[in-house]
Amino acid sequence: MKKKLSHYDDAGVARMVDVSEKTATKRTARARGFVRMKAAVLKALPENPKGNPLEVARIAGVMAAKRTHELIPLCHPLALSHVDVDVKVKKDGIAVEATVSTTSQTGVEMEALTAVSVAALTIYDMTKALDKSITIERIELVEKTGGKSGHYKR
What we know:
Elements: E1 25-36, H1 39-44, H2 53-66, H3 68-71, E2 82-90, E3 93-104, H4 109-127, E4 135-145, E5 152-153
Antiparallel strand pairs: 1-3, 1-4, 2-3, 4-5
Helix pairs in contact: 2-4
């Protein structure tokens, strides 16, 4: 049996999913991504004249999660109960991970993915003067809990 995409009606028209009949449950999502950069750029992070790129990226990710519904047209506005964005320096770049939770009728996967994406873009923006070849890689959902589809872990 082929699964039906929920953001389309029977005529194939895009629509916001009606979640009004769903039970509100605790929902969580964790996403990650990676900003690959040269060792020289990593070494220069503490002296960045724009400020600490990692802290600015972390705050940008939190802000982005809260505004996901303004960026992704058919996302529901959600009252998020928690957003955490973690950035860690690795030998070949910066690992970004976001965890989002709420008690709602719909999940927070898009909020976690948006947080990671915007945090990674912020790191790029704050370091691009040092190297234009920085790449943003493998943004992905790692885990989600709650809802009808249950627990998912990559």
